[in-house]
Write a structure and sequence with these properties.
Elements lengths: L3 H23 L6 H10 L6 E10 L4 E9 L7 H6 L1 H10 L1 H7 L2 E2 L9 H13 L4 E6 L5 E8 L5 H11 L9
Antiparallel strand pairs: 1-2, 1-5, 2-3, 4-5
Length: 177
């Protein structure tokens, strides 16, 4: 049987993921909605990542665009705070040096050019600053591809492996500007 701490963590992750669709709908007009979603998923109360950078590879326009970045050392707001005070969170996210680096990144599409994702990853590691990166990718709407480069935090567990990639699909419901 699981200990109380792991049950509590599981409940926090479930609360985080299950509230996201409602929060996405409530704040659907925000240009930086993906920052809210990524921050929530990466926070200590959910999947607890050190860093994460979300990119979209669009083969039709032959580009990879940096959408949003999260860096735990630049501040980790409480999950509820970001949704209750979206203006303050938006200012914090906008001033984040890591988020700025990610958002300013652009490159040619790996999908269109049949380039290995590892080539893209080696560029990202150097330009944006990852120490021990992992990545995952998935198909999003309009035949685009989401790519998340991330560093795991402390005590990442089976819960992460079981639910993290599925929860990233929620980023596909966020507009990209």
């Amino acid at each position: 049987m699981a200990n109380d701490e792991s049950v509590h963590h599981y409940k926090r992750v479930l609360d985080c993921i299950s509230c996201l669709p409602k929060n996405i709908i409530t704040h659907h007009g925000r240009e930086n909605l993906s920052e809210f979603v990524l921050h929530g998923l990466c926070s200590q109360g959910c999947f607890n990542l050190k860093k994460a950078a979300y990119f979209v590879d669009n083969p039709d326009f032959n580009c990879i665009k940096g959408v949003t970045g999260f860096c735990q050392s630049e501040g980790n707001l409480d999950w509820n705070e970001i949704w209750e005070d979206p203006e303050s969170f938006s200012l914090i996210a906008k001033s984040s040096p890591f988020n700025q680096k990610v958002r300013s990144f652009a490159a040619a599409s790996t999908k269109k050019n049949n380039d290995p994702v590892e080539q893209f990853l080696s560029t990202i590691v150097k330009e944006i600053g990852f120490n021990n990166p992992n990545y995952c990718s998935w198909t999003t709407k309009h035949l685009n591809h989401g790519i998340l480069v991330f560093e795991k935090g402390e005590a990442t567990n089976d819960l992460f492996e079981q639910h993290f990639l599925n929860s990233l699909h929620l980023l596909g419901f966020c507009p990209i500007f």
